[in-house]
UniProtKB/TrEMBL annotation:
InterPro entries named among the record's database cross-references: Epimerase_deHydtase (IPR001509), NAD(P)-bd_dom_sf (IPR036291), NAD(P)_dehydrat-like (IPR050425)
Organism for this UniProt entry: Knufia fluminis
One of the Pfam families matching this protein, by short name: Epimerase
Name the UniProt record assigns to this protein: NAD-dependent epimerase/dehydratase domain-containing protein
Keyword terms of this UniProt record: Oxidoreductase
Assigned protein family: Belongs to the NAD(P)-dependent epimerase/dehydratase family. Dihydroflavonol-4-reductase subfamily.
Gene3D superfamilies: NAD(P)-binding Rossmann-like Domain
Length: 343
């Protein structure tokens, strides 16, 4: 029996590329959506994709936020994995560049899916930040355990910065899906995945500059001896686990019309400064040589998350923080040596 045809958006991104790789490795046929024709060849020729070239086709959708952008693109597709979403970029108009694009891209995907009889499920990358208002970070609450039933409704602007706008955009988009299910009653079901702080190796990173971005750029300075002041919630999740969850969510055995939190070491979470001890445990020579000198620090904001629903539905727990850090540092060390050799 031929495997299902899966549509994936965001394949040029950190999690999206891993999702495409895992889906192809499991034998699915993939229709991968990119924004630019120039992205196709580099993705198709990547060593982890080239071996599956017969099972992947690329489609260019320049403006995913445009209604009708996916019309025809979903023909024959069974499941849509929608990972593409605007980032928290600094801009002079958060509504134009963060909030509206997030909502419009989601609406575009759902409107095309509802007109495509073959689609039986849509899986959307949401975020654990939808559980709480960003102002919660400034409170003293460390006892409340948040679950997938929680949803931030404090989304009104004005927003003091791009991150506040991003948090609001993710909450609004998640709420929009709930409204869509109630009002439109589509022929397909929807799963929303809520990852926490995504870290771990990046399949697309080719040097230290491309590795040390986003959340990785926030935590790697710890093992480089940098002392930081701005706290980060202690809820990591391995990027590979997030990608794996997207592919697992294709299966009908995973209950639909539900939201699932993805986070490791739940419910208590972790302390970021433990990265120093993990580095010393697995890479003592690199610590001794000064390649990863350690001694840095990053304050942890405790945030308790209930992932029991996710573990019951998917049948596995997210990779431990210790193993996640080991894998990230392994790539960091390899790229550091590559840089040294090249110079």
């Amino acid at each position: 029996m031929a495997r299902e045809l899966i549509l994936i958006t965001g394949v040029s991104g950190y999690i999206g590329f891993k999702t495409m790789r895992i889906a192809l490795a499991q034998g699915y046929k993939v229709r991968a959506v990119v924004r630019k024709e120039a992205q196709v060849e580099s993705l198709r020729s990547h060593s982890q994709i080239a071996r599956h070239v017969d099972n992947v086709e690329f489609v260019v959708v320049p403006d995913m936020a445009k209604m009708g952008a996916f019309d025809g693109v979903m023909e024959g597709v069974s499941v849509v994995l929608h990972l593409a979403s605007p980032l928290a970029i600094e801009t002079d108009d958060y509504g134009r560049d963060i909030l509206r694009p997030a909502m419009n891209i989601e609406s575009s995907v759902l409107s095309s899916a509802i007109m495509t009889p073959s689609v039986r499920r849509v899986v959307i990358t949401s975020s654990a930040v939808t559980l709480i208002p960003i102002t919660w970070l400034g409170t003293t609450d460390t006892d409340t355990t948040f679950s997938s039933k929680d949803l931030n409704t404090d989304t009104a602007g004005p927003y003091p910065n791009s991150m506040a706008a991003y948090w609001a955009s993710k909450a609004l988009a998640r709420a929009h899906v709930h409204e869509f299910l109630t009002e439109r009653k589509p022929h397909f079901d929807i799963i929303q995945l809520l990852p926490s702080v995504v870290i771990g190796p990046d399949d697309l990173a080719t040097d230290l500059a491309t590795l040390q971005v986003g959340t990785r750029g926030m935590v790697l300075p710890i093992v480089k001896g940098v002392k930081m002041d701005m706290p980060l919630v202690g809820t990591p999740v391995l990027a590979d686990d997030v990608a794996k969850a997207h592919v697992d969510a294709i299966k009908s055995s995973i209950p639909g019309n539900k939201d699932y939190i993805l986070s490791s070491d739940a419910p208590e979470g972790i302390a970021w400064n433990a990265m120093n001890e993990i580095a010393k445990k697995y890479f003592p020579q690199e610590v001794e040589s000064g390649l990863i000198p350690c001694g840095g620090s990053l304050p942890t904001r405790k945030w308790k998350l209930d992932t029991s629903d996710t573990e019951a539905a998917f049948g596995w727990e997210c990779t431990s923080f210790e193993e996640t850090v080991r894998r990230l540092l392994e790539q960091y060390i390899a790229l550091s040596r590559k840089t040294t050799t090249a110079s």
